[in-house]
Amino acid sequence: MAKRGAKVERNSVSEQPHELKYEAHKKDTTTDDVDKAKKSAGTNQRKAIENKLS
Known about the structure:
By secondary structure, the chain is mostly helical. It has a domain at 17-53. The protein has helices at residues 3-10, 17-27, 31-41, 46-53. Helix 2 (17-27) packs across helix 3 (31-41). The N and C termini lie far apart (35 Å). This is DUF3606 domain-containing protein.
């Protein structure tokens, strides 16, 4: 089992609808807001996106 890939995946938010939904639900916002935060942060790193949403 590859451990490196799993760790990398936990730290990022992809464009997949289920990941956007999860992050939106977690932060009590919409998927559009999450997508805008991703673009604003300029990265797909989960921490940066969560900071933009806060």
